[in-house]
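Per reviewer request, we include the raw input and output of the structure prediction for the construct analysed in the revised manuscript.
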Amino acid sequence: MSDKTNPSETPETVAAVDLGSNSFHMIVGKLDNRQLVIVDRLRDAVRLGAGLLPDKTLDHDAWERALDSLSRMGQRLRALPHHAVRAVGTNTMRQIRDGGAFLQAATDALGHPIEIIGGREEARLVYLGVAHGLAAGDETRLVVDIGGGSTELILGEGLAAQERESLFMGCISMTQRFFKDGAITQTAMEQAILAGRVELRPVRRMFHSGRWQAAVGSSGTAKAIERVAMANGWTEEGIGKSALKKIRRELVAAGHIDALKMDGLSDERRPVFVGGVAVLSAVFKALDIEHMQVSDLALREGLLYELVGHIGHVDVRDSTVQAIMQRFAVDKDQASRVETTARALLRQIAEQWELDDPEYTLMLNWASRLHEIGLSISHSGFHKHGAYILANADLPGFSRQQQAVLAALVRVHRRKFTASEFDAMPAETARSALRMAALLRLSVLMHRGRSGSHKPPMRLKVDDLNIRVDYPEDWLAEHPLTEAEIAREAEYLATAGFTLKYA
């Protein structure tokens, strides 16, 4: 959230980067009369998931492969403003526990911020990408995306995903678990498929064949299986049940990953192909699939189409916030009052506090609208309840980092100002979030009486962590309750390192 480019200037070129567990993808498009035309692609088989150690850090080789790939992509994307690029990390990036060291190194190599997204958000974006490549229709579709470390299942109609799940199995993880020494036996294949079906069991009813009319596979595993099936004459298009069975037989007959020499199978895909076949076989069996189409579009295209939507001021996060407000019966009038004041304060000090990135305005708006969602659970400590909801809920459109910021803002909007809530964030994010929190607290304070009566214009001045609030002459003297509250607020802000003066 540090780009200073004017968001009103629509970029001609946009790009998306997908940091998957098996491959990193970059896709670049140009906007031509509001139509997206793909002009560049880059794919590297980084196998990030294979380098994840038991302590959830990366080994040296995987670290270097990843940074080399991101550096090449960064050279292509360096000239683009941040709001024209969206980069996300998926399953393996979700698992890394190294204090943010790899994420920072990856961000530096790419030259653009990298978001970590949850499994269900990944599923939503996969469906968005796949749906843009399908013919228009009102049938319900099942989309299956097998990645290196996770498998996403989505039911949807048109461009809208309706059911989304992310399962902890992928081509890398399945290969490592059942074919780690490279040997491919009938027993190992059966055990791998059974393990996949066990993983699918809790969601089997949701995604069974009776709930959809067409099945679509996306990403590398599905495309590799289709290529092998077509190269061997086992299918004309897509993946059939019988073709998948023939591929399994060929794998077992080969006996070892190093001995695989199947028509249509690339050297790059060979190390994880058997795991991918096992996962897809489990999906076919559990969900009673006879035939599956294969899409060339996936997560990166979904990122790109959503990025174009953001540029056109269509942001799914707005819809998400509205849905949460409705679900938790938020007092919309009160939320609007707080939001209006917060935006007015932000406009006065955005440049001095380096909060002029439009993303900060959005985050402050959303925090203002959602700061009271915890009231639906309990009035006591409702800021804590609200923060927990926002940190752990499925919020379509939001990355994990964005959810963390939103949760922290709600957590500290009242009572003690616990600056430690921001300690786990990158330094720049923490500094900006801390400042937004101060603005939110002042805005909430002004509307504590929940009255719709006119509030005086507050003049705000800042210098680092020093805040000066000026009210109209004699206003505070006429409103002793507010004066007492802001005096108390000065004490709260002091615990977070701020100095608040007022008159």
